[in-house]
What we know:
The chain has about 575 residues and is α+β, with helices and mostly antiparallel strands. It has helices at about 5-10, 10-15, 35-40, 65-75, 125-150, 155-165, 220, 230-235, 265-270, 305-340, 395-410, 415-430, 515-530, 535-545, and strands spanning about 20-25, 30-35, 80-90, 95-105, 110-120, 170-180, 200-205, 225, 240-245, 275-285, 285-295, 355-360, 370-375, 380-390, 440-445, 450-455, 465, 470-475, 490-495, 500-505, 555-560. A 6-stranded antiparallel sheet has the order 8-7-6-11-10-9, with helices on both faces. Strands 2-1-5-4-3 form a 5-stranded antiparallel sheet. Helix 13 crosses helix 14. The N and C termini lie far apart (about 85 Å).
Amino acid sequence: MGEWWQESASDAMFADCPFGLGILAPDGTVLAVNRALADLHGVPADTLPGTRAHEVSGPLSHPEVLASLLRADKTGEPHVDRVIRGRVTGVAHSYVCSFAIWPLRGDGGVRGVGITFTDITGDTSALTRMEQVRARLALVNEAELRMGFSRDVVGCAEQVPLVVVPSFADAAAVGLFDAPVPISMLPEHGFDPPPGTLLRTVAAVVDPKIPDLPVLSPRDYGRPFPVPPEVRAALRRQRAELSGVDPRETPTVIGQATPDAPPLRTHLLKAGMHSRIVAPLIARGRAIGMTMFARLAGSPPFEADDLQTAEELGLRAASSIDNAQAHVRQRHAVRTLQRHLLPRDLPEAPGLSFAYAYQPARAGRLAGGDWYDVIPLSEGCVAMVVGDVTGHGLQAAALMGQLRVAVRAVARLELPPAALLAHVDSLMDDFAVDGELASCVYTVYDPKDRTLTWARAGHPPPLLLSPGERPRVLGGPANALLGLGGITFEQTSYSVAPGSTVVLYSDGLVERRGRDIDTGIDDLTGVLDAEGADASPNRLREAALRVLPADPEDDVALLIGRLT
Length: 564
């Protein structure tokens, strides 16, 4: 590095400057600091040179400082008037600083980086306020963005404490009522919950750098508890409530660790909780819970301005959690409807045996319109059908139920598969809305001449397992989806050997994003081939479901029939 930085570092102006000054190498190695900068880190000035910025506990290792160091080295552009907040590990010292970083140039380009820190803890200057507003707005926006990606209630609630700790609070939690509390008929009573109402903490995060505070799990804070007075006050007034004292003036803490207190409070009291904000979660005229933000020993207390940030976080969280709860309720309603629409037991047919499965998509998605059915026909014939309505949700499940009924009704007319699909296609205009479409495969097995006849409407082809042979893909024309109208359907027939098995399935079993469906069909035939054609339908069903990922993206309907 030469001696280029030593002359500046030995200057009396550098040493005596009341602002923290430092010179760093392009790789982040500390070359020189003055006493003011060392004091911000709680160490003697001669201990910092030679260390890397990310190894130091204090402002030098703040993520925003490290990112600015990297940008200054790469772009050669300065970064000024940035405000950061953090904690120095091991000395119970918190800081709020503004900093500036600029490149130090030489004949060969950037040879180092200069940095200044100004301790503005307690400063209420306009610049500090503007930076705090900017930081808090970014905090609220990040929390809302993260919550927007989650349709799971707990997953949504977790985003708030994950975002605000440690930049805004040392600990944060979200608690929800088991049932939302409607607004009181008396406005002055707000959302005061009735006696006996319980809250349950569903998400909590504490700063992992806080000493002697154990890592928390839902087992530590998941026990339901009566609504505390501070939460009742926030709900009655429909605004965030600040409580606590400045520990620098009065060394006391908030509340008592009573048996009825929130389980999390015991842990936070041990860590010296002295300042707390409780913000209500209110959405669509109902109180759904609360958010809690806490400052612990070594951190400055919350101020009045922090209430606005907490209230805004509560408003965004309430909206997102309410949407997630509505999604869960809708998903439950769709699943309940679909369970009632799908056949509970398949009919018995002489000499035939069946296995079936309905596998819903991953938890975050609404159920779709997949269905299966077995329909006895005259003279020992039997029809097997699997279909799939496009889309998800109540509308898709309702259309699925209508299609299943329509297929069963038309099947009584003993129409060939192609004619049946054409007839059902003409009925789609009567009960499909918003241009919904559906795929379907309809097969008829005639045991007298051992003939399997099928037709498809945009559906994956059936598979046939015959004794002594590898699984066969029963192709034939794919035809168009049901609902397009005016389509001529074609059918195909195939003679099957005794003991053969036919496998019908919806595309969720074999189709993956970014992968050709033929690859999925090959995987399915592979697992069925490994079991063998003599395997029972139940064993083949379990083997077929093994091709699904742990978190399937789409619903799956599967129907397996052993033919005599």
